[in-house]
Amino acid sequence: MEVLLLLTLGFFILHEVIGVAGAATIYAIFLVSWFMLNRRVLTIGLIKSDMRAYFNARSKGANHQEAIDRVIRYRYPFSQEKRSFVKSIFGEISRNGSDEDSLKTLIYIIFCQETGRPPIPDYGDKIILKINDIYDVVSSQYVRDTETNR
Questions:
Q1: What is residue 8's three-state secondary structure?
Q2: pLDDT by residue for the chain (150 residues), tens digit each?
Q3: What span, in angstroms and rounded, lies between the C-alpha atoms of 45 and 115?
Q4: How big, in percent rounded to 5, are the helix, strand and coil portions of the chain?
């Protein structure tokens, strides 16, 4: 909100110096950049927080399915409808596979539920790669933490 206030103020100052067209162009470029940066940060934050919820549950003794259920409850604490929808989709897609693949599938389903289906396949592929990268980082942190607590 503060950023929009500053942008509006900047627009009025700039339009006196470089004209309305120039100020509007700079304003539009800044807004698009701001939106893209925030979307990236929010995407990474969503993925990390869900992974941390899973590994936190596992580090406290939960089995895989209990940890998966905790991620869903963590993401949707007040919406039984969203919890049921995600569990239903997850149940259809994630049948046999490793715990790692199952978690990554759940994270992707939650991402799509929160942001909508990726508009282009390349973007979906980038999200999957980001999920893989974040999984490697977060899982190694929890493995390291559990080994030092033994």
A1: helix
A2: 565 666 666 666 666 667 767 666 766 676 666 565 555 556 788 899 999 999 999 999 999 999 999 999 999 999 999 999 999 999 998 777 899 999 999 999 999 888 887 767 788 888 899 999 999 999 988 876 555 554
A3: 13
A4: 85, 0, 15
Beta strands in the chain (DSSP E): none
Q: In 3D, which of 89, 106, 88 has the Cα closest to residue 50? A: 106
Task: Tell me the backbone φ, ψ of residue 119, rounded to 5 degrees.
Answer: -65, -30
- End-to-end C-alpha distance for the chain, whole angstroms: 46
Domain limits, the chain: 43-148
Residue 35, token pair as written in the block: 């939106």
Dihedral angle sign, alpha carbons of residues 16, 22, 28, 33: negative
DSSP characters over 114-130:
HH-S-SSHHHHHHHHHH
Based on the number of CB atoms within 10 Å of its own CB, is 75 exposed (0-12), middle (13-18) or buried (19 or more)?
Answer: buried
